[in-house]
Design a protein that fits this description.
This protein is mainly α. 79% of the residues lie in helices and 0% in strands. α4 (83-104) packs across α17 (364-402). The longest helix is centred in the C-terminal third of the chain and has 39 residues, at 364-402. It is globular, with a radius of gyration of 23 Å. It starts with a helix and ends with a helix.
């Protein structure tokens, strides 16, 4: 039986992550370029994102991915399936989906990265609860230190000559022109970023992400997704979340060097505690009769479909429609415009999720993924069985010869 709070949290994460990705959907080559005279709306939205959004939804996804691995582990144990074979089959196809998505649609893909992280987590799921918690906390501490040090080094050692171009600059105009010059150029930029992400992962986010996945498995086995935290623990988590969020916003205000490339390094730590708080609140609400909560549940059930659909729709909007009918969009768009587009798409996604879950058991991409990984898994199991039979026959033949 599905745990509805997990679906609701996943629904929040899939809808929330678009608020952060939207700037790169509109132009992955440049991201969001600020105006020479900063807009008040840009500053307000940037500060709000730093306090409540940056890194929070990625962290939720990591926690839920780990919880999902623990659920699969239990299911495989009950059915007598080989967990490693089953999970590796799922992750292999998720990696392929992520690779296609990252190279050809949106370079900021997370599927490929999560499949790689999860691959290294699988062996730890056999640990008992205490050992799993200790291991996850260790990875979280090490990973957070790496991210923090990396962020400080980039901030203090920043090359001012390489500062991101402002909206009115010639450099920005050149980058916009390059981005819209051809689809092959876009593929090249996105493929390069995907490759760089994989190469840099061990030196940046990998350890923290692995720790989050393991801690997600620990939380699932502790029945967190049914009970949440105790009141005392939640108060502590909330206080740390607020305090660390405020502290990490200060460098963004004081130093111009803290760009969109550096911000994730600082926000990754408060994101952990904020994600815990968001998850706890949704678990405690657990109002399945409310339309908004049920819509979050439905979004969580088809999160894979919504995630890929987001990218496809926005690729058409920003790379085809806008350049053709509103060529000045890249020079005039503000963060407020992007937030309004995100809100509109969020409403559409909720309606789409409600429709899919009402008429179908799964979303189309969930169904395709499931069909592919199950076929690979059963094929591998059949191959093992056939290999075992051959070995038995060979042993029997040798025994007959000996006798």
């Amino acid at each position: 039986m599905r745990i509805q709070s997990i679906d609701a949290i996943r629904g929040l994460a899939i809808l929330g992550i678009l608020f952060l990705n939207i700037a790169y959907h509109q132009n992955f080559h440049t991201g969001y370029a600020f105006f020479e005279d900063p807009l008040l709306s840009d500053e307000i939205i940037s500060t709000f994102s730093a306090l409540f959004l940056d890194g929070r939804f990625r962290t939720l996804f990591c926690l839920l991915f780990g919880a999902g691995l623990a659920i699969q582990f239990d299911a495989c144990q009950k059915r007598g399936h080989n967990f490693l074979d089953f999970s590796k089959s799922r992750l292999k196809w998720l990696f392929l989906f992520g690779l296609i998505h990252g190279v050809f649609i949106f370079g900021g893909d997370i599927l490929l990265y999560y499949s790689l992280c999860a691959y290294f987590v699988l062996k730890h799921l056999t640990l008992d609860q205490e050992a799993l918690r200790a291991k996850s906390v260790k990875y979280l501490i090490v990973g957070s230190i790496i991210m923090l040090v990396f962020g400080i080094v980039l901030t203090l050692g920043y090359d001012y000559g390489g500062a991101p171009p402002l909206r009115s600059s010639e450099a920005y105009a050149e980058e916009v022109t390059e981005w819209h010059s051809s689809y092959l150029f876009q593929i090249g930029v996105q493929a390069s970023f995907v490759l760089a992400t994989v190469i840099a992962a061990p030196f940046s986010m990998l350890w923290q992400s692995m720790g989050l996945m393991m801690f997600g498995a620990y939380l699932y086995r502790s029945d967190f997704f049914n009970l949440g935290f105790s009141s005392a623990v939640f108060k502590k988590v909330a206080i740390v979340a607020v305090a660390t969020s405020v502290i990490t916003v200060i460098p963004q205000i004081m130093f111009e060097q803290v760009t969109s490339d550096v911000i994730p390094m600082f926000t990754s730590i408060p994101a952990i505690f904020c994600a815990f708080a968001y998850a706890h609140l949704l678990i405690k609400v657990k109002n399945t009769t409310s339309w908004w909560y049920q819509s979050l549940i439905n979004c969580g059930k088809v999160a894979f479909t919504l995630y890929l659909t987001q990218s496809i729709v926005l690729a058409v909007l920003f790379r085809v429609i806008m350049p053709a009918y509103y060529p000045e969009f890249a020079y005039n768009v503000t963060l407020l415009d992007l937030m309004l587009i995100t809100l509109a798409l969020t409403a559409i996604q909720m309606l789409l999720a409600n429709f899919i879950t009402k008429h179908f058991d799964q979303g189309p991409f969930e169904a395709a993924w499931r069909r592919l990984y199950l076929r690979s898994f059963y094929k591998k199991q059949q191959s093992k069985m056939d290999h075992g039979l051959v070995e038995e026959q060979e042993l029997a033949t040798e025994a007959n010869k000996t006798s």
